[in-house]
Amino acid sequence: MLKWIKRLVLGFFSITLLVVIGSYWFLQTTLPTVTGELHFKGLLAPVTISREPSGVVHIQAENETDLFYAQGVAHAQDRLWQMEFQRRIGAGRLAEILGNKAIDQDKFLRTWGFYRAAEQAYLALDSEGKAVINAYVAGINGYLESDPTLPIEFYLLGVKPAKWTPADVLVWSKMMSFNLAGNRRTELRRYALLAKGLTEERIAELMPLYANQVQPADAAPIHPTTRDYQLIEALFKADKFTPVTSEVSNNWVISGQHTASGQPLLANDPHLAISNPSLWYLVHLSAPHYNAIGASLPGLPCVVIGHNQDIAWGVTNVEADVEDIYVLDETADGKGYLYQNVVTPYTIRTETIKVKGEADQSITIKESLYGVVISDLVADVPHTKPLALRWTGHDADDTTFSTYYWINKARDWTDFNAAMRFYIAPSQNFIYADKVGNIGHIVPGRLPIRKTGHSGLYPVAGNGDWDWQGFIPFEALPRTYNPPAGYIATANNDISPPNYPYHISLEWGGEPYRFQRINQLITATDKHDLASVRAIQQDQHSLLYDDFRPYLQNLPVTSPTAQAALKRLLVWRGDMSRHSSEATLFMAWYMGFARLPNAETGESWYFYPRYLLNALKSGDSACATQKRSCLEIAAQVFETVVEQWKTDIPQWGFIHQAEFNHAILTHTPLAPLFDRRVDFGGERFTINTGWVDPDTFKTTHLPSYRQLIDFSQLDNSEYIHTVGQSGNVMSAHFDDLLPLWQKGEYLSMKTTGYVEAEKLVLKP
């Protein structure tokens, strides 16, 4: 009996070992071929794909067609599953591989029509833009036709990748553009508060405009009913079906007037939601008359942020108000609505959603002259009037992609501006520097002109009375060239020139703390170099803390433990380092106090610090309702926080962790193989940002890519993104950049003289 048990155990472990070895061997076969030679149909001449020890890719081609073909190959080699997943999200085709749990998300994405918009955008491109995309698509399909062993996700989910199309390339940029146009969220939030019975005056207190801008009077505010509140809340939840990015970033450029070398320095760090793999892919593209390096997006050709041999550029979101919600007066039969007192029929389209393991489902989508009827996203929720959304990114003539192709080739400010004429959405702050010492800033994009009486803060009647009056002319868009100050910085702040005749936004990116801190640090140093701009980019000093500190000084805490903790907090200098326990104490108190208006809003109000500051300064009805002063409530929150940890307050990074989770496998037993986690510092308003989940304190958004360009020697420039270059968990480059990124280190941004660890030649 004992022998039999021993044999059984031995057999079990032997089989387990064989399975482990077999699985490991199979996973190894999913790695791409990155050395030697491969033959591809469609190439005109040989192309070299070199990889540095970090996995950074350099592509050298004899012509642009082959260059973008090879970029398609390289992206597919390292990020094929990510690209597949992204195009399925954009097309609303997740239920095909994930089953009925993805139906609601597919319905949401099909209703918005991102894929149709991508198809239209391709048709609108100039011939050069189409040629670039066609070559890139041919490269991806050429790689698929080479019958590679696919990444493990394809086998686990039983997915066979179909051929790529031009719309597959553009659909993810449509998704990103939609997420970066966030005004619909604040418009819905105000509308929801109205539906709950709050007055416009109270909403203005709760949601103060940027830098105390005066709130204009809306000539015809629409007052929803209590019944509509359920609809608005449901729309909030539905909006979460889009992969939430972030609407903020930093960039700045310093002229030689303020640098040690006498040449410009340019910095950029887009802040986006955490993803694994990284949203970005570092690449150098070289061909005759084309030499660009920087961050690309897997699934899209060209370099999105970076430099060529003549110029450099970086981007931040403008936070322009390019969305409006219209309340429709629908006919009794639900087939149309009143527009200029005439019954106007909806445009109806039907979408069929394939569902893994189940029958197909069909949905009917209504479109108005303004756009999609978004209330149909939650058609089962009762409401009084349907809502439609007007958004510039849905315009059929969106030629934004061509901008990126042409700035990759731009030689000077004139070329750079010419490229911006193609730009539609999302509106971005493009900063610029060139090798002869010029610096600049331009705000391209289609920015609507509204009638007087339409602030864009609330939904308005969709009857034709409040239609947009065109767009700000290209020549009138804000721009700056070689300003007297010798530097330019943007951080989602108000960039309207003095006495600007057009309205861009009333909200911008919330409080201007990051912009103010960047300006403080730039002006604090006479002559900047790469080290000083690196220090600015890594800065985590909290101006939020500085603003609240005078009120913290006066908190009437009573317990000895809380008094000791408060004394410790007041000595602290406001550095939101991951090693700081005081950072934990401050942020836990702030998030607790941000629940002050919960009875009215139903959610934490941490994203409106000026409301909280005003409450501490002048009192607030939310405090009066509790029959206590706001300082007393703030003190009670502090006592509660201290009681939780007493004297053992954890370091900020311990609870403010950044979790880089696999989009699908994070909820499976395979999660430990794919997911990564690091301690991180910062908060929403620090330069080196780390957005804070108000309930868990985990990091939600962070600097997804960092770039520092030095025109004294371009090959001394630096860049880094999160996680790694490869999306394959078996690759050495799956997560090798993450420790560097966490510590604030960078890779050299070399176009020559780099170490070539692997070399692959593609031949016709």
TrEMBL record:
Details of cofactor binding: Binds 1 Ca(2+) ion per dimer.
Q: Where is the active site?
A: 249 (nucleophile)
Record GO terms (molecular function)? hydrolase activity, acting on carbon-nitrogen (but not peptide) bonds, in linear amides; metal ion binding
Concerning Gene3D superfamilies, the annotation shows: 1.10.1400.10, 2.30.120.10, Glutamine Phosphoribosylpyrophosphate, subunit 1, domain 1 (3.60.20.10), Penicillin Amidohydrolase, domain 1 (1.10.439.10)
> Where does the sequence pass through the membrane?
7-27
Which InterPro entries does this one have?
Ntn_hydrolases_N, Pen/GL7ACA/AHL_acylase, Penicillin_amidase_A-knob, Penicillin_amidase_dom1, Penicillin_amidase_N_B-knob, S45
Short name of any one Pfam family annotated for the protein: Penicil_amidase
Q: Which domain of life is it from?
A: Bacteria
Residue sites binding Ca(2+) per the record:
187, 321, 324
Q: Which cofactor does it need?
A: Ca(2+)
Q: Name one GO biological process term.
A: antibiotic biosynthetic process
Q: Does the keyword Metal-binding apply?
A: yes
Q: Which residues form the signal peptide?
A: none
Entry keyword set: Calcium, Hydrolase, Membrane, Metal-binding, Transmembrane, Transmembrane helix, Zymogen
What is the similarity comment for this entry? Belongs to the peptidase S45 family.
Q: How does the annotation summarize its subunit structure? A: Heterodimer of an alpha subunit and a beta subunit processed from the same precursor.
Q: What is this protein called?
A: Penicillin acylase family protein
Name the source organism. Answer: Beggiatoa leptomitoformis
The record lists the lineage as: Bacteria, Pseudomonadati, Pseudomonadota, Gammaproteobacteria, Thiotrichales
